[in-house]
Amino acid sequence: MTAAEAKAEIFWTAFKTLPKKEQNLVLARLASDRSLRRDLMDISIAMERKNDPTRPLSEVLEEIQDAGKTR
Hints:
mainly alpha
């Protein structure tokens, strides 16, 4: 475990020991920061999609190019 991971684990453990009301206050404070809120949404989406099927970028670009030709 890296030093950064250890710090994150300590923070997470402390957060989980807070009463639910205090956890909600911390989450509300985090969500009030626009930039951080966007980062959290990006992370959430990435985590949800991590097992989605993938395909090569060249295939996607070819599909986009072909779609442009048919219009």
